[in-house]
Amino acid sequence: MSTQNYACGFDEVGRGAIAGPVVVASVIFYNYSNIPYGIKDSKKISASKRLILFKIIKRIASVGLGIVMPNIIDKIGISKATNLAAQQSIPQHLRVKKNLLDGNIKITTNTNIENIIKGDENYVSIAAASIIAKVTRDKIMVNKNKENNKYKWDKNKGYGTKDHLLAIKNYGITNFHRKSFNLHF
User: Fold this and answer.
1) Is 57 a domain residue?
2) N or C: which end of the chain has fewer CB within 10 A?
3) Furthest-apart CA atoms within the chain: distance in Å
4) What is the CATH number of the domain that holds 99?
């Protein structure tokens, strides 16, 4: 199916976390006339609604994912890691007219690129990408919590909450933490 007339939306999740990967998703809707109601910035909808929309989006759109783990983030830095994840998420089998990137994500492509501040609030393909990225990253963090529940990653998703920082103080850092954040107390 050709999508030359459509835009590909990109968004990232996990850039500011102190543990876990950075995840970038890309979304190209095949048909903009049947977009489900309620797609908006993933931070503005409940986890249960995100999961429902995640499943619908995967059925009606081409979805790409890029995931860069903490050890790589520590080696190349968060900006390069985010850009690497964005590059990985580009759907190789589709050609698009424009790539719409939320915020300051960077990618290398032959296609027209537009960075849009608060794009997840104004473009449905970027909002859908934010949902795909958030659900994907949240699943990674919940699964990682099953291996080591001291850090409560199922609740804080790897962000520097009070409980998470206290756990680091009490138990130290893991291989899933980003050492580049200098988390030693």
Assistant:
1) yes
2) N
3) 54
4) 3.30.420.10
Domain-located, residue 24: yes
d(CA 160, CA 158): 7
Ramachandran category for residue 38: left, alpha or beta (phi over 0 → left; psi -120 to 50 → alpha): left
Alpha-carbon gap, residue 130 to 138, rounded angstroms: 12
**Helix boundaries (H) for the chain:** 47-60, 70-76, 78-89, 119-122, 124-147, 153-156, 162-171
d(C-alpha 87, C-alpha 77), whole Å: 15
CA–CA separation, 107 and 84 (whole Å): 8
Specify if 181 maps to a domain.
no
Give 30-72 pLDDT, tens digit per residue. 888 888 889 998 999 999 999 999 999 999 999 999 999 999 9
Domain count, the chain: 1
- The 3-state DSSP class for residue 7 equals strand
Q: Is the pTM of this model over 0.90?
A: yes
**DSSP 8-state secondary structure symbol assigned to residue 183:** -
Structural domain containing residue 137: 3-142
- Rounded-to-integer distance, Cα 27 and Cα 161, Å: 30
